[in-house]
Design a protein that fits this description.
About 55% of the residues lie in helices and about 10% in strands. The chain has 20 helices and 9 strands. Helix 13 (about 305-310) runs antiparallel to helix 14 (about 325-345). The chain is globular and about 60 Å long. The two termini are about 30 Å apart.
Length: about 475
């Protein structure tokens, strides 16, 4: 296998507190044929001093006299880079030691692939502890990229040949949403995307973050999405998703506006969300409520009950009926935070959250089981089944209090059937029946599930074909 040079692209702006860890994570890679291009976007803190602590010829440090934004800093770093492969890292994130080696291995094995990405560890706000694993789809479509953008900058690696082919280093810098344009253009130009199914970087978040110019940021993101939709190469089935994509964007920025108590702007964006995507009001509870709940529990340093009550109090008058879901969302939030804390070795936090959830009458339902089962599968993919079984054991006392032994069986059944489907899609047919058995043992309804029966039969024939 050849060892192509990798250029790590890192924009920096007033992030000195975390920059050293990010730089160290690059220099300490198991794959050593690399350079690190840092573009300081007119920082006002001690960023230069942090960079100066590293006496390594692989670092190139460039300073912009005027702040031009993160996209402009990335583009300048790309122009200064010399590697055959480009990897991206935000200043407050950091790489797993195997990050570059895993991506280079995939690219060398599959020369047809031009862009690679990986799963990541999401860190708790203003902490180094893990909150959860984010795992993007194994096969990313243009619709995925434009609807919710499942790939963060620090997840991305791309061949220089594709950057040069599309002349991406001269792409006009955007205030927000540049990733939509770059990945969308790559995809529509025929660049093949490939996934490294491991969590290989750590994404940091910061408590008390304040977004300035929310309206400007939202409009910039919409403009970036529109550049993809208006491209002649954009297929009709993706163009048809324009209202949904715009609705999603308005919803995200509506949350930030309401969180910061910019009530009028938040209400305006919520109305646009519903006008473009009325489906967010469907479901029991509505999808809108689930979205607000998920955002409210992101930061363990914040009381999600306070956040939700504040946001519900700012809803437009015509949405006041949604307030009836506030109590449900608060209780469900404690349940999700309890599960997350136990999963990531914070048992005392987990105990407190579960006690609150039980006190508030939190509901244990199919939607929750599905969400928890997927989290267990993400954990198993990184750490193996034995460690995941330990987590199930740690969760069992709380599940029994919530739903009795039936709740434990339902969760184990969901996790097991998820493992079976994962094995099937990976072509590991011999593992499918072994993983279906505990699923059925814990939840007999899978015996009459057409999807389950289909993968069992297909796997049996797949094994026989491999033996023939």
């Amino acid at each position: 296998m050849s060892t192509p040079k990798v250029s790590v692209i890192m924009p920096a702006y007033n992030g000195a507190d975390f920059l050293g860890e990010a730089i160290s994570s690059v220099l300490n890679q198991t794959y050593q044929n690399l350079e690190l291009i840092i573009v300081d976007d007119a920082s006002q803190d001690h960023t230069p001093a942090i960079v100066g602590q590293f006496d390594d010829p692989r670092i190139q440090y460039l300073v912009q006299e005027v702040n031009r934004g993160v996209d402009a800093a990335r583009l300048r770093a790309i122009r200064a880079s010399t590697g055959e492969v480009l990897a991206f890292l935000d200043q407050d994130d950091y790489f797993h030691p195997d990050k570059l080696q895993a991506h280079v291995t995939l690219l060398e094995k599959h020369p047809e692939i031009g862009f690679t990405y990986n799963a990541r560890f999401e860190l708790n706000h203003s902490a180094n502890t893990i909150r959860e694993i984010w795992r993007p789809p194994q096969t990313v479509t243009l619709a995925d990229l434009i609807l919710g953008f499942p790939i963060a900058p620090s997840d991305m690696v791309v061949r220089r040949s594709w950057v040069e082919y599309l002349d991406l280093s001269k792409e006009p810098a955007l205030i927000h949403g540049g990733e939509y344009v770059i990945t969308g253009r790559l995809f529509m130009s025929g660049c093949k995307f490939g996934s490294v199914n491991r969590a290989l970087n750590y994404r940091r978040y910061h408590s008390k973050r304040h977004y300035s110019k929310i309206s400007v940021r939202c409009q910039a993101e919409l403009a970036a999405q529109e550049r993809i939709f208006s491209d002649p190469r954009c297929p009709a089935e993706v163009i048809a998703l324009r209202p949904t994509a715009f609705s999603n964007t308005y919803l995200i920025w509506a949350y930030y506006a309401l969180f910061q108590e910019e009530t009028a702007l938040g209400q305006e964006f919520l109305r646009e969300t519903i006008r473009l995507g009325p489906a967010v009001l469907k479901g029991a509870p509505p999808e809108l409520i689930n979205f607000l709940l998920t955002c409210s529990i992101d930061d363990e340093n914040e009381d999600h009950a306070v956040i939700l009550k504040r946001i519900f109090a700012q809803l437009p008058p015509e949405m006041n009926h949604l307030a009836e879901h506030c109590s449900w969302a608060v209780a469900r939030g404690y349940l999700l935070k309890g599960f997350r804390a136990v999963m990531w070795d914070r048992p005392e936090d987990g105990r407190k959250h579960f006690e609150q959830a039980i006190r508030l009458g939190a509901q244990f339902d199919e939607a929750l089981i599905s969400r928890l089962g997927q989290s267990l599968l993400n954990y198993e993919t990184e750490f193996g089944d034995a460690f995941t079984q330990d987590k199930i054991q740690a969760l069992t006392p709380y599940l029994v209090k919530l739903e009795g032994r039936a709740g434990v069986r339902q969760l184990i059944g969901c996790y097991s059937v998820n493992r079976a489907f994962q094995s099937y899609h990976a072509g590991e047919y011999a593992n499918v029946p072994k993983r279906i058995i505990p699923a059925i043992a814990n939840n007999p309804k899978y015996l009459v599930n057409r999807g389950v029966l289909s993968i069992v039969l297909r796997s049996i024939f797949g094994v026989q074909a491999n033996l023939a």
